[in-house]
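Risk register update: the risk of archive-format incompatibility is retired. Evidence:
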Amino acid sequence: MRTLTHTHPRDASLQSVLAALADPVRFEIVRQLAVEEVEKACGTFDVAVGKATLSHHFTVLRDSGLIEQRDAGAKRLNRLRREELDERFPGLLDLILNEPRP
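Archived output:
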């Protein structure tokens, strides 16, 4: 497995966070992480995209500071960086995640 680069939420712009969450698949990944409040393996998300596309979405979420990934054996685990994001953008995740989706 390759080394992952992560953007820390303190270095993320509001625009990059909002742009990442504007995509329905990425929003759903973040929603599932927020609801379950646990680390989830990449293959366990309920989204209708292939592996390559899913990998792209994880990269965008990492680059925007929304998630952190780590390798655990053959699995790659994902966690929402909720505490760090709440420090950087207080109330933003709650506001976005509680907004009804069309």
